Amino acid sequence: MKISNLLSMSMTNKVEPFFKLDWLPANLPTLAVVAIVLSTALVASQIIQSKNPPADKSLAWFVANPKDALVTNKICYDNPQLKSTESCVNSLKALNMMHKGPNS
Hints:
By secondary structure, the chain is mainly alpha-helical. The chain is about 65% helix and about 0% strand. It has 5 helices and no strands. The protein is elongated.
């Protein structure tokens, strides 16, 4: 067999790739910029959300939700700036009421 026949046979029996990346846009820098902008927006929204203090809960709400009262009390204990907020005061009062009774 001639070498040219071998080469032509190998070209006709090409293996197709398992998957093609032809779905990507032709302009990859644009895709990168869009990804960076969306990521930045997501991080910025998370930072803004974390800076907003949670809504104040009432004493009755903390009495009805003792697990949340414990979590809130732990957060308030760890952060001295939050100790004077209404939620912190109410969670401490609710925990005192549950452990000592309402008349103490």
